[in-house]
Amino acid sequence: MISKLPRWVEYGSFILALVAGLINAIGLLGFKHQSISHLSGTATLFGTGLLSATLHDSVHLLVILLSFLAGACVSGFCLRSGALALGRNYSRLLYLESLLIVGSIHFLTNDSLLGHYLASAACGLQNALVTTYSGAVIRTTHVTGIFTDLGIMLGSKLRGEPFDKRKALLFLVIILGFVLGGTLGAYLFALYRFNALLIPAGICVLLALAYSIYSAKQNRQTKP
Predict the structure, then answer these.
(1) Residues 6+ apart with CB under 8 A from 43
(2) How far apart are CA 116 and CA 104, in angstroms?
(3) Contact 22/183 with Cβ under 8 angstroms?
(4) Which of helix, strand or coil describes residue 105?
(5) Are 110 and 163 in contact (CB under 8 A)?
(6) In this predicted model, what pLDDT tens digit does every residue of 60-72 receive, in sequence order?
(7) Cβ 114 vs Cβ 107: under 8 Å
């Protein structure tokens, strides 16, 4: 249940959605106009490209999909649990995400497709970082499911069922973060091109540091 999640989840979800929005906006503007933080469009292009695109283009799209999967796999291996709680490897994963983003800048500025793959892996890692807890699934790199769940909640409310205000607030926070990230990403890309990815990379580092400090403080308070 969302109600069982710690209060810091809203803040972390907003920041991670902002990061994803930044990366996706820069991707749409600079990575052959392809989305980075979610795979629906990429999977569709891959499917249609099997009939019309060249082998090189099809392989490129397939590697993007596999890169996202690989990033999610890394998170799944490191977290070792679906429970969202202090003391897990979130900081390490955020540092790794930052490194992947920085690496993507190097390759993208040198016109290498490897930069696209690293950015996709970073988003896959992030999307798996916020995991399933008590039946509640939170995703921060895309908002299709968020809008769907919010619509279901509103429809149920109109039918007279109870409305989970905290769950709705969390969904709205994620949507707001993603949209703001897109706006900021477009602005920064116009100024700095692919170097604009230093901003989401830096945010990941700051979030990792904040989480480490908060986690250590909470552990000290809980010790007898």
Answers:
(1) 65
(2) 6
(3) no
(4) helix
(5) no
(6) 889 999 999 999 9
(7) yes
